[in-house]
Structures are given as C-alpha cells and as structure tokens.
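## Example pair
The file below holds two records. Each record gives the amino-acid sequence first, followed by its structure token line.
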Amino acid sequence: IKTNPKSWPGENGKGVETSPEEEKEKNEKFKLNQFNLMASDRIALNRTLMDVQKKKVSSIPTIHLYRDCFP
C-alpha cells in the first residue's frame, strides 16, 4: 500500500494552516458551507489517520455482546 508523504496537509490528523492573506476567503467560504472548504480541498482523500483505538478494545469478543440480537 502506497502512503502519502507525512508533510502533506492533514496527514496523521495534522491540522491544515492557511496564510493570513487567505483568512478573509476562508471565512467567507465557511459562512456559505459551514466547514473549512479551503482546508478540505488541501487534504488528500486517502489521507492517513493515527490509530486512536485502545489495544484492549480490539481483543473484546463482540459476538457475545450481540448474540441475542440475531437469530
């Protein structure tokens, strides 16, 4: 699997910075879309995120938690 360079915006959950010159445009787009469109456009669709899952969570046998929900 090919991964993106770690220096790319948004990689591993890193924040995306905009320059002071872009602040006005960023704020105008935020008013229209209710999210930071400029940051969204800079983040790769296939970005890498850090695994924040606790190690013990993956070892819980979930079949026992839901066995009464299924026939």
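Second record, same layout:
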Amino acid sequence: MSNLSKVPSDTERDKKNKQGADNALIQYSLTSDDYIDQLLPVIKSALKTNSLNSLIEKLDVASQEKQDELEVVSFGSVDGITSTVTSIEDIIHYSNDLSQQLQEINMQLNKSGIDLSQKKKTALKYKKLYNKINDTIFVFNACLDMLNKTKQVLDLIQNQDFYKALMNANSLMKTHIDEIENFEFTKNIHKSIPTLRSMILEEARDQIIKWITLSVEKQLTTIGETLFRNMELNNEDWEKQCDNDDMLLKFKINSPIEKSLRSTDIKYFDPLYNEDVEIDLSPMFHTILVYKAVDDLEKLKDEFNKEVLRKRDRLLYPITEALANNTSNRKEFPR
C-alpha cells in the first residue's frame, strides 16, 4: 500500500512534463529577439492555472542564471582582453625592436653598399693602373729586346761572325711592334739597318782579303814547294808504272788514264792542308754564305778576282821587271 502511494499519478506526471516544457521555453525565449512573443503561451497558461507568481519566480531564476553566466563571460572576457592587450603590447614592443633592428641593418647595408661602391671604384682604378703598368712593362721589354738585338748584331760583327750578324739584322728589320713603332730610337734603328748590312758585307770582304794576305800569301813559297814536290812524286810514280807496263807509255801525265791510276796520297793531295801547310778555309766559306744570303755572290767573285790579280801582279812584277832588265842588259853587253 505504501509503494503504490509513491507512484506518481498521470496528473502529476503531466504536470511535471508541462513544467519542464515551460522551463525550456522560458530558457529559449530569453535567448531570442522576440522573447515576448515566445512567452505569450506560457503567460496564458499561467493565467489559466493561476500560477503567475510561479512563472515570475521562474523568470527571476532564469534571469539570475543568465546574469551569472553573463558575469562569468564578462569576467572571462576582461581577463582575455587584458591578456590580449598585454600580448598586443608585447607584439608592439617586439615590432618596435624589429623595426629598429631593420633600420640598423638598413643603415649597415647602405654603408656596406657605399663601401662596396667605393671599393669597386678603387678596384677599377687599380685595374686600370695595373693595365697601364703591364703596357709600360711590355713597351720597356720591347725596347730592350730591340736594343739587345741591335747590340747583338754589333757584337757579332766585332767577333767577325758575319753570317749570324746578317741574319740578326734581317730579323731586326722584320721586327714591327705597334707600341714602339713611333719611338724616335726605333725609327733610327730601322734606318740604320741598311748601314749595318753594308757594314757586314764590307767587313766580310775585308776579312777574306786579310785571309788571303795573312793565310795564303805568306805561305805561297811553302805551298809552291809542296805542289812541286807532289808533282815530282806524281811523275816518278807514273814513270814506274810505265816501266812496269809498256801499254802505259802512250799516255801522258794528267791524262784520264794517268789520273785514274794515281796513288791515293797523290790523287787526294791538298796543297792548302797537308803536313807542311794548314790554311783554314772557314773565313772564305763564311764570306761566301754572307754574300749568297744577300744574293750578291757575283760581286764577291769580282772582288776576289781583283784582289788575286793585284797580288799576282805584285808577285810577278818584280820577276818580269828583273827579266826585262836582264834582257836589256844582255843586248847592251853582248858576250
């Protein structure tokens, strides 16, 4: 019987359900813009059931709950705003620091840019100076090279190495360097090259004349004696061969048969280089090379022939004069 009394009746259950619905409607209406229109059904129901006071209490409770929630939200918002403001202030301070650092960096960059520009100008200036120094060194070296070649030609002439002197003079004549072409000393050197060539030819010609005088003329007696002795040996050798072979008697000395049968010593006898005479022929060969290089070998032949004729005349004139005098004396004083 007691348990049955605890079970709520349908009327009570409906009543509680209706109260729960009213509370939900009240909560919803308080969050709506048209909450008056939303509360009309609840007010009408409260008037019908004579529970207006209860409705007012519920509205007060709901309003107080909303006020509490608003205060909580407000206080939380204030804390958030304060925190946000603090963060914003920190950000502003950090931004100011960054701005100042950026200004410093910008100033350093501007300074570095100015320094870099100045260094670039200095580098270009040094590069131009370096190029000028290199050009000057090149010109100096070219001048020294030309002067050395000129001096080398003169030294070779002095050392009587005329062929090399001529080759160097020809090389010097072909040397053309634009950087020093207009220098006065360069022009003078080029103008002097024909004179150097003439000097080389004259010195080479004088050398062969001196060679004839010193090496040949002074040993003419010895040369003649060796030639005569070699001729005697040749005659004796040929007589022996003819005695041994009668077929050779019809051939004379210096005939092709005799020449082919000569002994090696007689056949290859050199009157200018033997046991009694040693004449160096290199000056003659050297002079021939010089004149051949300038394509003037005929002139050398003429000069050589004239010199040989002069020496021949100087050698033979006393003999012919003596013979002539001897002949005239014989006519004046006949035996």
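Notes on the second record: The CA atoms of residues 272 and 283 lie 14 Å apart. The chain has eleven helices and no strands.
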